[in-house]
Amino acid sequence: MKNLQKAEIAVIGGSGLEEIFESKKTLRIGTPYGLPSRIFLSEIDGRNVAFLPRHGKAHSVPPHKINYRANIYALHKLGVVRIIATNAVGAINEKFSPGDLVVPHDFVDFTKRRVPTFYESSPVTHVDFTFPYCPEIRETLISSARKLNVKVWDKAILVCTEGPRFETPAEIEIFRKLGCDVVGMTGIPEAVLARELEICYASLCYVSNMAAGLQSKLSAVEVKRVIGNIFPVFEQVLRETVRTLPHVRKCPCKDALKDARYE
Questions:
Q1: For the chain, how many structural domains are there in total?
Q2: Which residue has the higher pLDDT, 153 or 235?
Q3: C-alpha pair distances (Å), 142 with each of 55, 145, 149, 201
Q4: Cβ(36)–Cβ(29) under 8 Å?
Q5: Against a cut of 0.90, is the pTM above it?
Q6: Which of 102, 143, 133, 105 minimizes the C-alpha distance to 244?
Q7: Nearest to 103, CA basis, from 66, 164, 144
Q8: What is the mean pLDDT of the chain?
Q9: What is the dihedral of CA 60, 23, 38, 183, to 10 degrees?
Q10: Would 2 be classed as within a structural domain?
Q11: Among 17, 123, 152, 239, which is disulfide-ready with 145 (CB 3.0 to 4.6 Å)?
Q12: What are the pLDDT digits (tens) for 106-146?
């Protein structure tokens, strides 16, 4: 790894964002957890940025088959200390509309088969999730959107489901009663795995549709169409966030393993 270019910031791309950054270098990094998605290195205002398309460059990997541990560990090996995730979500909260940007402040995990941790043996490790997303990245995402006069919801609870099918109206009604605002199939366990490696992580979501039961039909074609419509604005917010993120981390994420282990 010592001869490879390093990156401080990573963007993990969701549906429709596979071409967001012009690549200067492409990497495939081996990990103890298998091969991750191919990583593309770019530069924004002098800052090295790694772009990782979680579904693969051709969007060929379904959400329940993504090797989340390999992806996050590869970014860690590359030197990444901040991750900005992007996620397509359906709106449960009827105040939200397709095309809206959302920066979640909390999540609920309804995934079923994904390995949610790097720590499966001694020392037993329990990371704190009082603040599920990095407050510094969240603040920068929100301020960047507002600086660009882009409408953004600054609080939302995201519920993550297993996929690859869309949710049923009954499931969405349950999630609504639990207080969830948006639903998606990615983001978890990414956020957890990043915290376990003391990497800052926050998500910029875009509402691609209303959730099941709130519109007549859901389709993958619609998701792709919506991101195509908002892509220029979405890209501007991401670039402004990368440009204005503080160079020194002062958030609790960097000390997530302090007092977390039974040793």
A1: 1
A2: 153
A3: 26, 5, 11, 14
A4: yes
A5: yes
A6: 143
A7: 144
A8: 91
A9: -50
A10: no
A11: 152
A12: 999 999 999 999 999 989 999 999 999 999 999 999 999 99
